[in-house]
Amino acid sequence: MEHSAEQRRIAEAWLATLGAALERRQFAGAAAMMHPDGYWRDLLTFNWGFTTLHGVPEVESWLRDTWDSNAPRNFRLEGEPSIASLGEHSETLEFFFGFETNVALGRGFVRLVEDPNAPKTPKAFTILTTMKELKAFPEAVGRNRPREDMRVSSRGLENWLDQRNAAREFRHNDPDVIIIGAGQSGLMMAARLGQLNVSTLVVEKSERIGDVWRKRYHSLKLHNEICMNHF
Ligand SMILES: Cc1cc2nc3c(=O)[nH]c(=O)nc-3n(C[C@H](O)[C@H](O)[C@H](O)COP(=O)(O)OP(=O)(O)OC[C@H]3O[C@@H](n4cnc5c(N)ncnc54)[C@H](O)[C@@H]3O)c2cc1C
Questions:
Q1: Counting CB atoms within 10 angstroms of each CB, which of 42, 93, 109, 174 has the fewest?
Q2: What are the φ/ψ torsions at residue 188 (nearest 5 degrees)?
């Protein structure tokens, strides 16, 4: 495919066309931007669910059914597009993009391939749209990171460990959420809720967290490739 400025132009034009089609509720037009064998995976952005769609008709009816005023908009390229390959497609144009809904900021990824029937209009072989952050509950990172301004050497002030112990004992409040099972799902959920400042209690029936794994394996070793392990 063409040099990087041209790749950028193609990616931005594709995103602008998708955004305009969705804004005008031209569902057939938006779905036709997919390759006939293409997949769209949506995580929590068009509705509160995980969805995988295959092919143009499925995408079109899903867009029609899930559309509301909260639908993703303001699609914009993030970073530089790159050339790769996928299966029978020896050349794909791949790029990340940002977008927003009324309640959330999102991030997506798309792989464009050439359409043999219309060489000048690349089609999406895969699209991922995923929620990144709820606008009302910004992630406590970067500028939002909690600041420890207290002079912990002063008498009467709690240091981090004091606060941690109080939180563990739920000394000042009851938990808003109870998670049953401190396996990887429970621990990840608790970590996410903690990051959102939601008071959470995890209960585990085993004596020690990790026993469910420890009692099965002699080592803490996953068998799949490390890049697949989000935990
Ligand atoms: C043999 C085997 C090999 C695997 N290999 C891999 C691998 O290589 N890579 C990989 O990514 N995945 C692997 N998996 C899958 C992985 O282990 C599971 O997907 C993962 O553990 C699921 O996490 P979970 O938190 O949903 O459930 P679990 O890990 O099962 O955790 C559930 C927790 O809830 C607790 N609990 C249950 N009921 C109650 C209750 N009533 N009250 C309180 N606590 C309760 C349990 O004690 C447990 O700690 C493997 C699974 C098996 C069985």
A1: 174
A2: -65, -40
